[in-house]
Design a protein that fits this description.
Blueprint lengths: L1 E5 L2 E4 L4 E8 L8 E6 L6 E6 L5 E3 L7 E6 L4 E6 L8 E8 L5 E12 L1
Parallel strand pairs: 2-10
Antiparallel strand pairs: 1-3, 3-8, 4-5, 4-9, 5-6, 7-8, 9-10
């Protein structure tokens, strides 16, 4: 299984970005999807997740601003990020957990939010 993340960039505070993570080499419906991020000098932290059944979970700081979704036609999950803040800056990593428990990580995509 491979995960390919895309969509990062440099934006201003208040702008929006959409990150995507494409899964290949596996049956998409058997994998959850999630995003983590790592700010400079900080540990990697959970951002959002979408389970096999579509249930979603968000870290408190992004609730109401970020939306995670799955696209079964494209084998991807996306993170729509609205009202971005400088504290959202970091490298965003896509993550997936198979139904049998194996965890996979994609490469990071950098998000920089200027004030």
């Amino acid at each position: 299984v491979q995960l390919q993340a895309s969509g990062g960039g440099l934006v201003q505070a208040g702008d929006s970005l959409r990150l995507s993570c494409a899964l290949s080499g596996g049956t998409f419906r058997r994998y959850s999807g999630a995003w983590f991020r790592q700010a400079p000098g900080k540990e990697r932290e959970f951002v959002a997740a979408v389970k096999w059944n579509g249930d979603t979970q968000y870290t408190e700081s992004v609730k109401g601003r970020f939306t995670i979704s799955r696209d079964y036609a494209k084998n991807t999950w996306s993170l729509r990020m609205n009202s971005l803040k400088p504290e959202d800056t970091g490298v965003y990593y896509c993550n997936s957990v198979a139904s049998w428990g194996t965890t996979y990580w994609g490469q990071g995509t950098e998000v920089t939010v200027s004030s």
